[in-house]
Design goal:
By secondary structure, this protein is an all-alpha fold. The chain has two helices and no strands. α1 runs antiparallel to α2.
Length: 64
């Protein structure tokens, strides 16, 4: 139950950053939006990579 929640939070973090980037009028808020979007993408990539590595190890250990 925790992993889907973390994926959803990272995706919402990304969407919030993109929305802040496009719909804000000050440069400071746009830079914050870029930061939110970047960290959202980094979070998603890291979670997917860890998930893939765990699946590979499980296949190796279980022989399946």
């Amino acid at each position: 139950y925790i992993m889907p929640l973390l994926y959803a939070l990272a995706f919402l973090f990304f969407v919030f950053g993109v929305a802040r980037l496009f719909f804000s009028d000050s440069d400071e808020k746009r830079n914050e939006g870029k930061s939110f979007a970047l960290w959202g993408i980094i979070g998603l990539v890291v979670m997917f990579a860890v998930w893939g590595i765990v699946k590979i190890f499980l296949k190796i250990l279980t022989g399946g």
